[in-house]
Amino acid sequence: MKHNVKKIHDYLFEIPQTGKMLVPARLYVSEKMLDDVFSDNAPEQAAHVAWLPGIINYSMAMPDIHWGYGFPIGGVAAFDYETGVVSPGGVGYDINCGVRLLKTDLTVDEVMPKMKPLVDQLFRDIPSGVGSTGSIKLTHKEEQHVLRNGAHWAVEQGFGIAKDLDKIEENGTMPGANPELISEHALARGKAQLGTLGSGNHFVEVGVVEQIYNPTVADILGLHKDQITVIIHTGSRGFGHQVCDDAIRVMLRASEKYGITLPDRQLCCAPIQSPEGQNYLAQMACAVNFAFTNRQMITHWARGAFSKALGISERAINMTVVYEVAHNIAKIEEHIVDGQKRKVCVHRKGATRAFGPLHPAIPADYREIGQPVLIPGDMGRYSYVLVGTDQAMQETFGSTCHGAGRVMSRTKAKKAGQGRDLRKEMAKRGIVVRASSYATIAEEMPEAYKDVSDVVDIVHNAGISKKVAKLRPLGVIKG
Amino acid sequence: METIEFFDHTADIGIRLTRPTPEELFRDAAFAMFDLIAPNNKFRPVINYTITVQGVNLEELMVNWLSEINFYFQVNGYVPVNIALVVNSTCLTAKIQGDIIDRSVHNVEIEIKAITFHKIDVRQADDKWKAQVVFDI
User: Fold this and answer.
1) Beta carbons of A409 and B118 less than 8 Å apart
2) Which positions of chain A have pLDDT values less than 50?
3) Can you identify the CATH homologous superfamily of domain A2-478?
């Protein structure tokens, strides 16, 4: 497939439309990355997405592209709201996996001497690890509230403050959620796991603002050099996994029913306007709300852990939400296509919304600078804050990358971690790590990921988002 | 010949196995999955469950079977120790004896988010039964 690829510019390559593709596929990558990107089936997956009915312009992939199920991770595709499809595989199992960035009034010098007790406290207070269950056990009625109202429910219960909601996509509640459509299996998995970090690549990270690229924008976001920050990366836990699992079975039948030819069963889908399509969107919204609630509760516990470990009041720490993004989601949005406003369903699977300045969905405080975009890296290097651009609105339905992207399988990473003391290696880099198992630390070691700086440079140079600040990790808890 | 192999899929992991009968294939796919989730443990056959799952074909049946026992693990911490199966092309009934995981004693390594249809392959080839399954972790 690589020999057919056409260079559009230094950071954009096109797989031409062939066979049953309805549009070409476009990859935001550099020439240097091409061999690596084409070493697995991810580009073929991007081409397969282009088979799906109603796709508009291109099937796109961001520079953190890697092999997923059906859609590649890093995939973006928009479908016409009237004639297009919605696919659970285009959202992924961890529905509304996302990232929240918090800022504080603390400086690195104040926190560094207490980093170890701080990380220990976060690890104690935030349930994490394989199959982690929370301290909150929801009743059926409470769970229904969570699924309908998202982070608003959490704030009503005393987890955080109302102001937190202003800086979350959808203000923490996705409309259209219908808990009546959720299976007993999903409800059972959700009941036990609200307010938990989970395992794998999910984390809470204490960091410091190391570099500012755009002082004016950083100032509006309230970020400045040497400031202590917190990143929360988690999603909808077992609830979302089960919602996706249930939907895939329905969509396999729906694809046959509506005569949709699939190159890969994980791309199963249904017309957005069909009962199956509408039901999935209502179920997905429940999982989106579950994840909003999850991150809101973890925020509350992070505030408490900081206060306990540092012996400073929460008011003095002043941990506030900079922004929160979802990077596994399908959203109904309006975009300009060929000069006309069109309602579309944008699938972002391992991709982040990056709306340009003045978009009404952006919080009023940030509207002039564009939507904040949060790109976590691996636990040993950096994370980035960017903002969305007008160019993203024109080219990618307001979308950009979501993270570093794995280069090493978990097994390879575990093997590479054998005989080493990764905790000590991280400590030498000035990073305190706590995880429920050594295997998790090995799986998540920095070498297992692409350098997030390379990924971010591509979206910056391609113009689909612009760098604002670089954050360096100081302390990490892993699931 | 009986074979079993674990293979990598970028961020995730899969299993390939060959067994003489469909019952052994489905049973050992389940045990292989729990070898990934909670390896090197001693569990006792103290709690019994009977599970029935259906699927339109063998592949969906395999995904549904593994999803169902993963659900029992996710919600109750249940790990199978002995499995007796009856399988036909669209239905499976399993009588399971197992244990509840105790995190203070048992080793748990990974969480399986879902059993995927990606590259799924379950079939009879000559006198053997083969399966390939990829897990989203």
Assistant:
1) no
2) none
3) tRNA-splicing ligase RtcB (3.90.1860.10)
